[in-house]
What we know:
The structure is a single chain. The protein has helices at 11-23, 34-43, 60-69, 88-94, 109-119, and strands at 3-7, 27-31, 48-52, 78-82, 101-104. It is of the alpha/beta class. The chain has a 5-stranded parallel beta sheet, sandwiched between helices. Strand 3, helix 3 and strand 4 (78-82) form a beta-alpha-beta unit. Helix 2 (34-43) packs parallel to helix 3 (60-69). The longest helix has 13 residues, at 11-23. The two termini are 15 Å apart.
Amino acid sequence: MAHILVVDDEPDIVRVVVQIMKERGHVVETALNGEEALECARAQPPDLVILDLLLPNMDGGELCWRLRDEPVTRHIPVLMMTAKYVSLDEVKRDTGIGADAYVMKPFTRDVLLRNAERLLPGSD
């Protein structure tokens, strides 16, 4: 069982991701924007952040960068969800400072779980 922070401004996406993760026994916390997510991650660092790329005020890329910049949160793996096309070059460029993995919206349950759970501590 892992502690997962889900960050998305679309309530339907949040509801679906939370349901999928809870069905697997994970404890899930949610945030609707980047500032709220930073506060949550600082207060109780999760084992994984599942994050939307397109957020209001602070996009997912900026949030990733800020998580990586702070000692208390830099170790947290990030799974980025996006409906925006992400090229292989963008993925390679983001390695180390951005997301650890990407999931394209709309996603299937299996794709989300496979990508999320492989990033969790203790996964193979």
